[in-house]
Write a structure and sequence with these properties.
12 helices, alpha/beta, 2 domains, 13 strands, 6-stranded mixed β-sheet, L-threonine synthase, Rossmann fold, 4-stranded parallel β-sheet, TrpB-like_PALP_sf, globular, TrpB-like_PALP, binds pyridoxal-5'-phosphate, single chain, Cys_Synth/Cystath_Beta-Synth, 366 residues, binds zinc ion, pyridoxal phosphate
Length: 366
């Protein structure tokens, strides 16, 4: 299946030290920062052009019609006391925002001549990548943890993925790391500790969330964009999109949502490479005890905020939303609860202009 690389894609740059690299896959991020024990993701760099929207690395990507998801406004009861808009990513082909990532990263793998991709995921990313690899005729290997729901593993297998299971998350990462120099299987999710985040090519796909939000609001940026996060691929990609379209100073504030303080702990003075205590059963999509610095950068550079929400409250919120016709996965419902928390502590007010990225449909049952 032919994909065309954007002729203006000029290379990759480290998001912190700004070193430049040529177009290639660097699944461990910036080699120079890694050598100093401070993993840091890269971002795509383009030569200036006259495009009206955000730049994308592949011009004819493998697609299943992802994106252009609705911005739901006037959703009574989504957040009591504040009229939020929901960017409904559950409307994507496999029910989550990950389809945006998969479309670009699978296009990258095809363009670079790989036979397949390998990823660590116990949920949405695995289902999404399996689907897009099927479309592109690529092999797909997904490393899950033993506590992944059987129906999710079955779904990935039915979609043609090879699924391998491990007791602990770190063992999954070791499995993916074995492919770091492979010329046939491309690792597209993180496997370094501390984590660096996923493929910068795939993250480019998330910039379109920003473009679509602006398009649906006649160019008017919201004050806040609320994004549930694990390693912050989505939060960072959304920030990159707004930065490209509006400039860094006018980019909306990212309100990052996490299951226990990680970014919030760093904003309160902890070291960004620390290990953060905490666990979540309700929000496996948002887990992880270390930070990918891109998550922090999305908040810092947007003058944003981070909110931690606990399992019990998120499950109660998820039940409430399902009964109100909003069947979000708990990891996604967490975003709406975070707005209630931000209202309660005065970070947001009933007049605040807020878009919540509702990242995933709940019907996969995660
Ligand atoms: C439902 C849902 N929301 C949010 C995220 C955020 O992940 P990240 O921080 O890696 O963008 C994920 C990732 O698995 C997810 O599945
Ligand atoms: Zn660097």
């Amino acid at each position: 299946m032919p994909t065309t690389q954007n002729p203006r894609l000029a290379g990759l740059a480290c998001i912190r030290c700004d070193r430049r690299y040529e177009v290639a896959d660097h699944p461990t991020g910036c080699p120079a920062c890694l050598a100093q024990g401070r993993p840091m993701n890269l971002e795509c760099v383009y030569t200036p052009g006259d495009s009206t929207g955000v730049d994308q690395p592949y011009l004819r990507p493998i697609t299943l019609g992802e994106g252009r998801t609705p911005l739901l406004t006037d959703v009574p009861g989504a957040v009591p006391g504040l009229d939020v808009a929901l960017k409904w990513e559950g409307a994507n082909p496999t029910g989550s925002h990950k389809d945006r990532f998969s479309a670009v990263v699978v296009s990258r793998a095809v363009h670079a001549g790989y036979e397949g991709i390998v990823a660590a995921s116990s949920g949405n990313a695995g289902v999404s990548l399996a689907t897009y690899c099927g479309r592109a005729g690529l092999r797909c290997e997904i490393a899950v943890t033993d506590d992944t729901p059987a129906r999710v593993v079955e779904l990935m297998r039915d979609l043609g993925a090879e699924v391998v299971s491990f007791p602990h998350s770190e063992q999954r990462w070791k499995h993916v790391a074995a492919y770091r120099d492979s010329r046939t299987m491309l690792p597209v999710t993180n496997f370094v500790v501390p984590p660096v985040g996923s493929s910068p090519f795939g993250i480019e796909g998330y910039k379109l969330v920003a473009e679509e939000i602006l398009a649906d609001r006649a160019g008017r940026a919201p004050e806040w964009v609320v994004v549930p996060a694990s390693r912050g691929d989505l939060a960072w990609g959304v920030h990159l999109g707004f930065r490209e379209l509006l400039g860094a100073d006018a980019a909306p504030r990212i309100c990052l949502v996490e299951p226990f303080p990680r970014v919030a702990a760093v904003l309160a003075g902890a070291d960004e490479y620390a290990t953060f205590p905490g666990d979540t059963r309700a929000m496996p999509s948002l887990g992880g005890n270390q930070l990918a610095v891109q998550a922090l950068e999305a908040v810092r550079r947007s003058r944003g905020h981070a909110v931690a929400v606990d399992d019990e409250s998120v499950l109660a919120e998820t039940r409430r939303l399902w009964r109100a016709g909003l069947p979000l996965e708990p990891s996604s419902a967490a975003g709406l609860l975070a707005v209630s928390r931000a209202l309660a502590d005065g970070t947001m007010t009933p007049e605040s202009d807020v878009v919540v990225v509702a990242t995933a449909h709940g019907l996969k049952g995660m």
